[in-house]
Design a protein that fits this description.
It contains one helix and ten strands. With 106 residues, it is mainly beta. Strand 8 and strand 9 form a beta hairpin. The radius of gyration is 14 Å and the shape is globular.
Length: 106
């Protein structure tokens, strides 16, 4: 199981974990008009999963089966956060740094 945590969330944030097979480079503001300038989406959205937030941290656990064909496979992971206003509408979208992960056995 791969586990990750991203900090800097507020109580009124919604976070998505994005796991991709490839690395990309797309400004968040070109996808969402309320995207934070300077933030970049770096993971293709092959697996998008809700990341619960507690105490300002978004956490995610993704099961990865211990099978030989996955050894040496690279995936890219990133958390995208949407900060919500009092009515629950997003007013800001930001992205964490991306991680390039090589899969294998311990």
């Amino acid at each position: 199981t791969y586990e990750a945590s991203a900090s800097g969330m507020t109580a009124s944030s919604l976070a998505l974990s994005v796991l991709g097979w490839s690395q990309i480079s797309i400004p968040v503001s070109s996808v969402f008009p309320f995207g934070v300038p300077g933030c970049t989406l770096v993971a293709t959205p092959n697996l998008v999963k809700f990341a619960p937030i507690a105490s300002g941290h978004a956490t995610v656990a993704i099961p990865i089966p211990p099978v030989a064909p996955l050894i040496g496979v690279h995936v890219v992971h990133q958390v995208v956060a949407f900060h919500l206003d009092a009515l629950g509408a997003p007013f800001e979208a930001a992205a964490s740094n991306g991680l390039d992960l090589g899969l294998g056995y311990r």
